[in-house]
Amino acid sequence: MSKITTLFQELKTSGKKGLIPFITAGDPDPKLTVELMHAMVRGGANIIELGVPFSDPMADGPVIQRSSERALALGVTLHGCLDMVKEFRKNDANTPVVLMGYANPVEQMGAERFAIEAKAAGVDGVLIVDYPPEECVDFAARMRIAGVDPIFLLAPTSSPLRIKEAAKIASGYIYYVSMRGVTGASHLNTQDVASIIPKIREETPIPIAVGFGINDAESARTVSKTADAVVIGSRIIRILEDAAPGQAVQSLENFIREIRVALDS
Questions:
Q1: Half-sphere exposure of 193 (CA within 13 A, CB side)
Q2: Which of 13, 14, 62, 47 is nearest to 175 (CA)?
Q3: Are 27 and 71 in contact (CB under 8 A)?
Q4: Domain 3-264 = CATH 3.90.180.10
Q5: Which of 49, 110, 154, 174 is most exposed by smallest CB count within 10 Å?
Q6: Is 49 a catalytic residue?
Q7: Which of 29, 35, 49, 202 is catalytic?
Q8: With contact defined as beta carbons under 8 Å apart, do 211 and 259 qualify?
Q9: pLDDT tens for residues 19-51?
Q10: CA distance 138 to 238
Q11: What is the pTM of this model?
Q12: Three-state DSSP class for 215?
């Protein structure tokens, strides 16, 4: 049983919902990434999504695009991201880490090598945004053989067939994109989320995490009424952008703790 699956079972037993914050590896400073990861855990994060910076993202809004541009300008690569996970694992062997990114860096490394190196670094799950589930049977199988959960996206536009295809090969959790559009948008319709999640549950027992448009304690708490976990990304990047010099780590930890309290209330 994977670390992510075990975590969701523990959350369900305790009656809690998962908190999955996202940061882009290397932003605002590669030397700060591991410290930020630990700060999120202290604040109450259950899983960390670590973004692999990419030059041409298709799902990320301007906030996360800026973070990728800053990280790339600082020389952050897929190998560098794996090194950050290794460093994180020196002091945290338990918190699941999911790499989230795009196909190009994985294709350059080679899927088989990527699976092996990701597992060796301590990665627990992989979400490649532009890998559609119906074309990723082999990739998903390779990840599972390596002991890494292949995580896939579903969206409001996903057809019943797409939901079935994702349910067949995904493990760890399903990432449900709560709206049409890109990350950081503000038009979250929680009623739509509440109506679609039961349809996904009809096809799979895999936990469902909801992201895109969750910006504060209220939206996180509302979405968690039907989802198993919430994912927050763009708001976190903005917090790091706005933090005073030397205050990024504490500002992030404080925000994560605020969301944790809301989810547990």
A1: 29
A2: 47
A3: yes
A4: no
A5: 110
A6: yes
A7: 49
A8: no
A9: 999 999 999 999 999 999 999 999 999 999 999
A10: 37
A11: 0.95
A12: coil
